Amino acid sequence: MSTAVLERPEIKKVSERLSVYLAPIALYENGESYIVLVELPGADEKAVQVSLDAGVLTIEAPIKVDLPADAQARYSEVRLGNYRRTLNIGEQIDEAKIEACFKSGLLKLTMPKEKGGKARKIPIKTA
Questions:
Q1: What are the domain boundaries of the chain?
Q2: Three-state SS for 12?
Q3: Tell me: domain 20-65+75-112, CATH 1.10.10.10, correct?
């Protein structure tokens, strides 16, 4: 790769700016709960925050890297900034029993189903 490409001003501007990234998720379900896996590569386990407000689950994690004060970005494919994801969890989750576990950049949320919440088919009307 040529040096001219690495020193393009638009690359430097993008690299120096802190962005918010949508954390990728996977959703699983069994008879008792929903399991959400959230990828947060580079996140410090102590900095990951999970909150619940009015049925909306919010996951946030800042990505911080210690660089010398005079370091200038030349090229970067590394995401620096913050991860954020919000999920509407609905009424069929027992909010008081949600558990979170973080290991090796992967957050696992186990969300038990509410005892009364049962799956049902919704009839579709034709116009």
A1: 20-65+75-112
A2: helix
A3: no
